[in-house]
Every structure is written in C-alpha cells, then in structure tokens.
C-alpha cells in the first residue's frame, strides 16, 4: 500500500513502520487513523515479519491528535437527537481505540522508538506496544487533561499497568512532562539512548534478537503475557496449559538443538497468513 502518513519497509524479517510527517510533528490526522491499523493488519495477516519497529521522523515522535480532527468533525456529531448522537459518538471512539488495539493484538512484538515529544495520543499509542525505548531528549505528556478532556484511547487503561499507579495518576491529572530519566526510572521505557541514530541502531539490534527466535514461540509468549496481564494467576496458568496442549510441537525445539550441534543459525518456518477477512 501507499501511505500518506507512514513509511513501511520490511527487511530481514523486521517490519519498520515510521511516522512520516515531521513538518507537522507527526500529528495524527484523519489519514493516520486509517493507515496505521491497515499497515499493522497487512503485516499480521500475511505474516510478513517476525517483529515490528515503530519509529518516527523529525524533532518529535508525535504531537498527538491533529487539530483538524477536532476542528472539522463529521456533521452528524453535533446534530440530531441527543441519545442517537452520543450513541454513534461511542462507536467513533471505539474505532479510534481499535487503531492502537491493533498494536497490542498483532502476533508480532512491537517495539516503539521514541524521540522528542510523545504527546497526547502518542502516549496512547506507545503504551499499546510491547516495549518502549527513547532518546535522552524525549518526554511524555498526557496532554488531554490540559486541553479540557479525558484521555480516551488507552492511556488511562494501559499506563497504570506499565508504571506505578501513583505516578500514572499524577501524570494524567497534571499533564506535566515526564522526561526520559524519569520514564526510565519508572519503567515506562527500557533504555535511553543519546541520539536518534543510536536509538534506532539499538532497537533494531533487539528486533534482530527477537527475529532469530521461533516465531511460533514468540507469538505464543506475547499471547500469554497479554492474557496474564488481564486475568488471574489461576486463569492464566490454565490457559497456558490449554495453549501448550494445542500449540506445542517439538519441531522448533529440534531445530534449535540441531542448529547448535551443527554450528549454524536456526531456520524456522514462518507463521501462516491469517484466514481471509482478518
């Protein structure tokens, strides 16, 4: 596909999805909300990669929602009977939420590489990724409170699962900036890099390590981690047992042992493309 707001490349089983509107601080315009889920869906559906790196261009990772989304809403958002108007509003919010849900649901791990400002919707987006890395000049800001609204696309649900509750609430209530050192100390990011270039090199090194593993084992691991985060320990262990009953096969383990014995890199079969319609 050809994108207006993104660039997508795939090399050595790593998909690189870049926000590509640096002059507009990579704000999330109408096209973005269509293109990001489409790109992630295409990678997942066709099993085009084993890991996804989500990065950006320019001074800032993203300044969040583009003002055009607020200033040029659909006409029916403010006309007609109140109950029906608000009912469709609920569905519009859920459509936007689904954009970032895709990052969480995709079978491949998603690594976010963040430079400069990660503001508003940017926090919604990166907290849906598996791991986050940033540059020394990066900062995170839950901007919605500062403009008179409640963040509605995942920050309030995911951020407290990543960092301590007290800090998450402070950041959400005050809309203050959380700089890179604080983000690292709180566990919001895994590592801070001096420059954008060093960050991309470091994140791609991690992506390469993931890509060398069995894609079935990695997909199962992501499935279990997500499930365990949202369920009790007992339920999660039970689901793990059921998963192994259906998914565990000795093929990839045998390949690991054989490759080590022969002194070569492993060669795994890729995940199968998803059935049509997904």
From TrEMBL:
Transmembrane segments: none
Location of this chain's protein in the cell: Peroxisome
Pfam families referenced in this protein's UniProt entry, alphabetically: ECH_1 (PF00378)
Domain of life: Bacteria
Key words of the record: Acetylation, Fatty acid metabolism, Isomerase, Lipid metabolism, Peroxisome
Pathway: Lipid metabolism; fatty acid beta-oxidation
Gene Ontology biological process: fatty acid beta-oxidation
Main location, first listed in the record: other
GO molecular-function terms, A-Z: isomerase activity
GO CC annotations, alphabetized: cytoplasm
PANTHER family: ENOYL-COA HYDRATASE
Entry similarity comment: Belongs to the enoyl-CoA hydratase/isomerase family.
Protein name: Crotonase/enoyl-CoA hydratase family protein
Species of the source: Exilibacterium tricleocarpae
